[in-house]
Write a structure and sequence with these properties.
A hairpin with a 5-residue loop joins β6 and β7. It contains 40 helices and eight strands. It is mostly helical and about 1000 residues long.
Length: about 1000
C-alpha cells in the first residue's frame, strides 16, 4: 500500500493558472502569518478602494461579492471565484473602463499576493485527492458496461438525455450527474432492453446482438450463426486445385511442402486437400469425369505457367466439374400418400429431404445405358455400353461414383423452398428461407451439410457445427414448435385427421408432445394408413418421423432440465461484472432468493431469470460508481477492488477485466515499477478508443458531431454521412495512435502526419499514399504539403465551427483559444448583431472586413482581439474544412493576421508555428489540467496545481513524450487515494 502523502509546506514553484505572463513563476516560501498580514495591509484596502462599491450588498454586480473575501481562509474556500476575479483584473477587464483604475503597482501587488497565497495553500494540501461523491454512470459508461456484459454493441443508453458537464467540460463527475426520476425511468427502460437480449443455452446463458423476445427472434439468431459458419468454410474448388499443383511441384524440390503447411498458407481444409490429391493421383481410374479432371489438372503442372494461366485453367476445371456434376444428380420424386394427406406434410417432406441429402455424394444409376436421351455417358461409351462385360460396366460406374463422391453436388444447403412442389418453382422461392425444411405453412429446419461435414471439417469444426444445430433446437425450442405445427397442419390443411379416433390429440394441448401421447397418435395414424393401403415406404416415413420427433423432444426435455441450474448460476455469476467488483455472499444469496420468489409467484423459468437479471442491473451498485465513495473523513487509499475500477473507467470508460483485477489484488497498481506495464496493456486494448472519444470529445467539444447537420449539403454535396463519421473519428484515431506509440505531446498542435481512413485520405488529397488493400486507419506522413497535421486543421473542428454557408473566424478562433490554449473568455453580451449566414450575403465586403466593422463596437473589441486573429489564420479552409483561395462570393481569401502579441502570421503554418513556439507551455498545461479533471471525475482543486506541475516536469524530462504525463497521474495520490467530507472543501463547489 502507498504511504499517505505529506502535508508539510515545501519550497516549490507553481504556475499561475490563467495567464502566460505568470506561468512558471517561482514563488519564495511564504509563511501563513506573513500572508495574513499582507492580506490585511495590502489586499483588503485595494478591494475596498476599487471593488466593494460595485460588488457588495444586495445589488452587487453579477451577484459577485468581494466582501465575502474578508480573510485568507475565506479565499481558500472560494479560490475559484477569487482566481477568476484576479484573472479579470490582470486582463484589465475589471474594473470597467469608466471606473477608477488601479495603478500597475497596485495590480502587481494584488497578483503577487494571490500567487503566493494560492501556492502556499496548494503546498499545504499537496496530494489531497479531493472529494468525489458516488455518482451514477453517464450514458457512455452505461453503454460500455452493457456492451462488455453482453458482448455486442447494443446502444443501451440510446434514449438517455445528454449528460450535463461540470465546470471543466466533462460529463463524468458527481457535480453534474444527478439521479432524477426521469433518469431512473431511462435506466429502467434500458434494463428491459438489455434483458430482451438474453438467450438461454444448454450450458448457461448468452446475449444476442439484437432483442430476442419471440421464438422467431431466437430462431433468427441461431439460424444466422449456422449460415455464417457455412459461409466461412473453404468450399471453392479453385484454391484447392492451385494448392494441389503447388504441393505437387514442391515434391520435386528440396523444399518439400507438407499437406498441412500448404493448406494453412491458403486457408483451406487440409483434410479435403489430401482427399483431392488422392483422387487426382488415383492411377486406377479409366473412365468418367474424374479421369478428365486428372488430365486437365496434370496440364497445370507445367512449371513455366504464369499465375494468371494457372488460375484460368483451374477455373475452367471447376466449370467442367460443376457442369458434369449437375448431370449426375439422382432424382428423388415426391412420396405419394393416400388421400387426405397433403404433399407438404412433415413426414413426407422430411423423407424427401433425407433422400436428397443422402445423395449429395452419389451418382445417378439410371443414366448408364445406350439411350441417347437418358445416358450420362460420352458417345464412345454410350454406343458400346450394353455390349460390355458386367465387370467393365461396374468399373465405369465406380469411376463415376468416385467423381461424385469427391465432388458433391453441394457441400451444404442453407436456402430451401417448399420441397414438394416443382423444383424450379421451389428454387425461386428459396431465397431467404434459411435452413428451411421446406414445409408448407409450417416452421421447421433441416440439416443438409453431410459433404461439408465429411470432406472438409476438422473434428473440432464438426463439434462446433453440431453444437450450433443443437443450440438451434434448444434456444428456439424447435422440436416443440415443429411438432405443434404438424398437429395444426394435419387438421387445418388436410382431411386425414377428420376422424373421431384422432380427437384425443390437439396442438393446443401441452400434453400432446409427451412420449405416451405421441406413440398413441402414431399407432392410430399408421392404422389408418394401412386401412388406406399406404405403401410400406409411406408407413416407414411416418414411423421415422415419430421416432425422430420423439427423440428430439425427449432430448430437449433432458437438456432443459439439466440446463436450468446452470443458467441460474450463469446469471448470478454476472454479478461481479455488473457491479464491477466482487459481490459478497449476502448479495449473491439475495439474487438467488429473488429468483426463488419469482418462481413461486409465476413458475416460468425463463421469465424468472429475466426478472433476476433485471433486478441485478437495477440495484444502485450496478448503476453507480460507489467505488468513489468513502465514509471516512480522512484520506485513505483505494482498495484492491476499487482501484482497478478507477483505472478502467479512466482508460476504458467501463469496468475492469480479470487481469486488471488480479493486478490490483497483488498491489501492482500501487507499485511504481508495475504501473507502466499495466498502462501499456490498457492503452493497447481496443477499448482505449472509448477514452479518446470521451476525453477528446468533451474537451474539444466535438462529441455531438456525429449528428452535425449545419452543413448546407446542397452547396457542399461531398459532405455526406460517411465523411461526417470519418471526420468525427479522426481526432480519436490520431490521439490513440499518439498515445500508443508514445509520441510527443506537441504533435497535437503541429506534425507532418495524419491518421486517416480511405475516405479522409481522398478528402485530404492523400489517396496515393493510402494503402487501399490494408484499409482501416493509417498514419500517413508528408501531410504538411496539403495543410494537415495535428488537431487544428482537422475537418471536424473546421466544420463544426462554421455556420454552414460561410466560415466563422470568430467561432474558430474562440474555440481554439478556449479549448487548445485554455484561456477563459466571458460569454458575449446580449443583443450582439449577427453576421450574415452566407458569404453571398456580405455584398462587397469580405468576411474579414465585416469582422473589422463588428469590432468597432467597444464592448466587442477587447474580447475579439484575443481570438479573431486565430480564426482569420484559418480562412484558407472553407466551411467544410477544404483548402481554398476564394470564398463562396468569389472574394480572394487572405489568411494573414496580427496575433495578440503583435507578431504577424500567415495561414495554418503560421498559426501552428506560433502556438508550438510561443504558446506551447500554455497548451501543455491546459492538456494536463484537462487530463487530471477527466481522470479524477471532478473539477480541479488547489492541490491539483502541483500535480499538473509534476506532469509538466515529466514531459520536459522525457522529450515531451505523452505517456510521461499519464504515468505521473496514475502514480499520484490524487488518483490512488480518496477522502470523505472535509471542512476545507465544503464551500469549494466540488462534487456537491
Amino acid at each position: 500500500m502507498p504511504r499517505r502523502p505529506s502535508y508539510s509546506i515545501a519550497s516549490a514553484w507553481i504556475a499561475f493558472s490563467v495567464t502566460a505572463t505568470l506561468l512558471c513563476c517561482f514563488a519564495r516560501p511564504t509563511s501563513a502569518d506573513e500572508l495574513t498580514e499582507r492580506f490585511t495591509r495590502e489586499v483588503q484596502p485595494l478591494l475596498k478602494k476599487y471593488c466593494d462599491h460595485c460588488h457588495s450588498g444586495d445589488a452587487a454586480e453579477a451577484k459577485f461579492l468581494t466582501t465575502q473575501f474578508d480573510t485568507p481562509r475565506s479565499i481558500a474556500k472560494q479560490w475559484q471565484s477569487w482566481d477568476e476575479a484576479v484573472r479579470r483584473l490582470h486582463e484589465k477587464e475589471m474594473p470597467p473602463p469608466d471606473e477608477p483604475q488601479p495603478t500597475e503597482n497596485e495590480r502587481d501587488l494584488l497578483l503577487s499576493w494571490s500567487r503566493d497565497f494560492l501556492q502556499s495553500e496548494a503546498e499545504r494540501r499537496r496530494g489531497e485527492p479531493g472529494l468525489v461523491d458516488a455518482r451514477r454512470l453517464n450514458a457512455a459508461e452505461w453503454n460500455n458496461v452493457i456492451n462488455d456484459l453482453v458482448g455486442h454493441e447494443i446502444n443501451a443508453a440510446i434514449d438517455f438525455p445528454i449528460d450535463p458537464a461540470n465546470a471543466e467540460g466533462f460529463d463524468n463527475s458527481g457535480e453534474s450527474l444527478t439521479y432524477t426520476s426521469g433518469v431512473y425511468q431511462k435506466f429502467s427502460k434500458s434494463i428491459d432492453f438489455v434483458v430482451s437480449h438474453l438467450l438461454l443455452t444448454p450450458d448457461g446463458i448468452r446475449f444476442a446482438p439484437f432483442p430476442v423476445v419471440t421464438d422467431t427472434d431466437r430462431d433468427r439468431y441461431c439460424v444466422q450463426r449456422i449460415v455464417d459458419f457455412y459461409k466461412r468454410q473453404p468450399t471453392d474448388l479453385v484454391p484447392y486445385l492451385i494448392v494441389a499443383r503447388t504441393w505437387k511441384l514442391s515434391q520435386e524440390t528440396a523444399n518439400k511442402l507438407t499437406i498441412e503447411e500448404s493448406a494453412k498458407q491458403a486457408a483451406i481444409s487440409p483434410k479435403y486437400l489430401q482427399l483431392l490429391l488422392d483422387a487426382l493421383q488415383d492411377n486406377t481410374l479409366e473412365y468418367g469425369p474424374l479421369r478428365e479432371v486428372q488430365m486437365r489438372w496434370s496440364a497445370t503442372l507445367e512449371p513455366s505457367l504464369s499465375e494468371a494461366d494457372v488460375l484460368e485453367q483451374c477455373e475452367n476445371i471447376r466449370r467442367y466439374i460443376v457442369g458434369q456434376r449437375e448431370r449426375l444428380i439422382p432424382t428423388v420424386e415426391n412420396l405419394r400418400a393416400p388421400g387426405g394427406i397433403n404433399g407438404g406434410s412433415q413426414p413426407l417432406v422430411l423423407w424427401k429431404n433425407r433422400e436428397i441429402a443422402q445423395n449429395r455424394r452419389r451418382c445417378r444409376t439410371d443414366g448408364f445405358n445406350a439411350d441417347p436421351e437418358k445416358s450420362v455417358l460420352p458417345l464412345e461409351l454410350r454406343e458400346k455400353f450394353d455390349s460390355l462385360e458386367k465387370p467393365q460396366q461396374v468399373k465405369i460406374l465406380n469411376d463415376y461414383e468416385k467423381f461424385c463422391s469427391i465432388f458433391p453436388d453441394l457441400f451444404y444447403v442453407y436456402e430451401r423452398g417448399r420441397a414438394h412442389i416443382d423444383p424450379k418453382e421451389a428454387a425461386k422461392e428459396a431465397k431467404g428461407r434459411l435452413l428451411s425444411a421446406g414445409f408448407h405453412s409450417m416452421m421447421g429446419y433441416f440439416r443438409d451439410d453431410r459433404p461439408l461435414y465429411e470432406l472438409i471439417l476438422s473434428e473440432a469444426e464438426q463439434k462446433e457445427l453440431d453444437l450450433l444445430w443443437d443450440e438451434l433446437d434448444f434456444i428456439g425450442q424447435v422440436p416443440v414448435r415443429q411438432y405443434a405445427g404438424h398437429l395444426w397442419f394435419e387438421r387445418a390443411e388436410a382431411s386425414f385427421l377428420n376422424d373421431d379416433r384422432f380427437d384425443f390429440v390437439r396442438a393446443e394441448d401441452k400434453a400432446a408432445n409427451s412420449s405416451e401421447m405421441m406413440r398413441k397418435f402414431e399407432a392410430v395414424y399408421i392404422d389408418k394408413l394401412r386401412e388406406k393401403n399406404a405403401s410400406p415406404q409411406v408407413i416407414q416415413a411416418v414411423e421415422d418421423y415419430f421416432d425422430e420427433m420423439d427423440h428430439r423432444l425427449r432430448k430437449l426435455e433432458r437438456d432443459t432440465k439439466e440446463a436450468e441450474p446452470k443458467q441460474l448460476e450463469a446469471i448470478i455469476n454476472l454479478s461481479d461484472q455488473i457491479e464491477r467488483y466482487p459481490t459478497d455472499e449476502e448479495m449473491l444469496a439475495t439474487y438467488r432468493d429473488y429468483y426463488k420468489v419469482t418462481m413461486e409467484h409465476l413458475p416460468n423459468h425463463r421469465q424468472s431469470l429475466e426478472d433476476t437479471l433485471g433486478f441485478m442491473l437495477s440495484v444502485p451498485r450496478s448503476q453507480m460508481r460507489i467505488d468513489l465513495l468513502t465514509l471516512c473523513p480522512d484520506m485513505q487509499p483505494y482498495s484492491r477492488t476499487s482501484l482497478p475500477v478507477r483505472w478502467s473507467f479512466f482508460l476504458w470508460v467501463g469496468g475492469p477485466d480479470r487481469l486488471l483485477s488480479e493486478a490490483a489484488k497483488n498491489d501492482e497498481l500501487f507499485a511504481d515499477d508495475k504501473i507502466p506495464q499495466h498502462f501499456q496493456r490498457l492503452i493497447n486494448d481496443p477499448k482505449f478508443e472509448r477514452m479518446a472519444k470521451e476525453f477528446l470529445g468533451n474537451w474539444l467539444e466535438f462529441r455531438r458531431f456525429e449528428n452535425h447537420n449545419a452543413v448546407d449539403r446542397g452547396q457542399f454535396q461531398e459532405f455526406d454521412d460517411e465523411l461526417r463519421q470519418a471526420m468525427f473519428n479522426e481526432p480519436i484515431q490520431y490521439f490513440v495512435d499518439l498515445v500508443r506509440r508514445n509520441g510527443r505531446l506537441i504533435e497535437l498542435i503541429d506534425s507532418d502526419h495524419v491518421v486517416v481512413n480511405e475516405r479522409l485520405a481522398e478528402y485530404y488529397q492523400l489517396q496515393h499514399q493510402f494503402d487501399h488493400q490494408a484499409g482501416g486507419w493509417q498514419r500517413i506522413t508528408g501531410s504538411r504539403e496539403v495543410q494537415r497535421g495535428g488537431l487544428i486543421p482537422m475537418g471536424v473542428f473546421l466544420t463544426q465551427n462554421s455556420p454552414g454557408l460561410r466560415t466563422s473566424p470568430v467561432k474558430r478562433g474562440y474555440w481554439l483559444v478556449r479549448k487548445i490554449l485554455g484561456e477563459k473568455i466571458p460569454a458575449p453580451p446580449p443583443n450582439v448583431p449577427e453576421l450574415p449566414d452566407s458569404e453571398h450575403d456580405l455584398g462587397a465586403l469580405t468576411l474579414r472586413q465585416a469582422l473589422e466593422k463588428h469590432r468597432e463596437n467597444p464592448s466587442c473589441a477587447s474580447c475579439h482581439a484575443r481570438f479573431d486573429s486565430f480564426g482569420l489564420l484559418l480562412e484558407g479552409f472553407d466551411p467544410i474544412g477544404k483548402p481554398r483561395e476564394v470564398d463562396l462570393a468569389g472574394h480572394t481569401i487572405s489568411s494573414v493576421a496580427t496575433l495578440p502579441d503583435g507578431s504577424e502570421a500567415d495561414g495554418i503554418v503560421g498559426l501552428q508555428n506560433y502556438i508550438s513556439q510561443q504558446r506551447a507551455d500554455d497548451f501543455r498545461r491546459n492538456f494536463c489540467q484537462k487530463l487530471v479533471a477527466y481522470s479524477l471525475g471532478r473539477s480541479l482543486i488547489l492541490p491539483d496545481r502541483l500535480l499538473v506541475d509534476d506532469m509538466l516536469k515529466a514531459l520536459r524530462e522525457n522529450d515531451d513524450r505523452i505517456q510521461a504525463a499519464f504515468l505521473v497521474l496514475l502514480r499520484s495520490p490524487q488518483f490512488q487515494w480518496k477522502m470523505g467530507q472535509d471542512p476545507e472543501l465544503e464551500d469549494n463547489n466540488v462534487a456537491k
